[in-house]
Design goal:
Length: 232
């Protein structure tokens, strides 16, 4: 599949309609994010290309509730029966008890993009696991949920200390060869986003995975610490 890549022995990054999905392929399968609406079949196609089946999916984890991250979750859940995991603060929005906020923070831009947002609304899905900071998943030798609010209230990152790996979703960007804060166009609280970056900078890892950019494969935590120290 064009643009898909293997990042580590058991980790794959797949383009999925803007944002990337990640597959952790071990005895069982974990899917992290699921792209825009309609991306579910693309993710499963890639999984099958690895010789694995949808029925092997144990977890489907959302890093946050933006449309380009949760659009394929309902399809994956229906096909695989995998357990869906979302930060507790975002559960009512993805299940439909509360209106799902649009991603655009500027009121004029939100108004102009409203037709696109309506067309991109993801199908509702049920949540099996309401996540909190510090929760653990078995894959990658133990994958810790790190609550990193700012981009959205319930944004999470996933950290494997044993693998030296951090999947940070949209907590960061990597543009023009350097790390940056998430875009103001789509970030609910920039002050919180900075604090979340400072928290991630205290972790020790070699590889940093981001939802919209290629991974940093070497000395990533050092780069993040330098960036964190530059923040006002």
């Amino acid at each position: 599949m064009r643009g898909a890549k293997q990042i580590a022995a058991n980790l794959y990054q797949i383009p999925a309609g803007g944002a990337c999905a990640f597959l952790v392929v071990e005895d069982r399968i974990t899917v992290i994010d699921a792209g825009r609406r309609g991306s579910g079949p693309r993710i499963l196609e890639y999984l099958r290309s690895l010789g694995r089946s949808p029925e092997e999916i144990s977890y489907i984890i959302s890093t946050h509730y933006h449309l380009d991250h949760i659009g394929g979750i309902a399809h994956l859940q229906n096909v695989s029966g995998g357990r869906v995991a979302v930060h507790q603060s975002e559960v009512p929005f993805v299940q439909g008890q509360k209106p799902l906020p649009g991603p655009f923070q500027n009121p004029l831009l939100a108004f102009l993009m409203a037709p696109f947002v309506r067309l991109s609304r993801p199908p509702r899905f049920s949540v099996d696991l309401c996540l909190q900071d510090g929760d653990m998943f078995e894959p990658l030798g133990g994958m810790e949920v790190v609550h990193t609010p700012g981009h959205t209230p319930g944004s999470i990152s996933l950290y494997s200390s044993s693998e030296g790996l951090l999947i940070a979703g949209d907590a960061l960007e990597f543009r023009r060869g350097r790390l940056q804060l998430p875009s103001r166009l789509f970030t609910a609280d920039m002050a919180q986003a900075k604090e979340s970056v400072r928290r991630l900078a205290g972790l020790d890892f070699e590889v940093l995975c981001l939802s919209h950019y290629p991974p940093l494969l070497k000395n990533a935590s050092q780069a993040l610490r330098r960036f964190s120290e530059s923040l006002n």
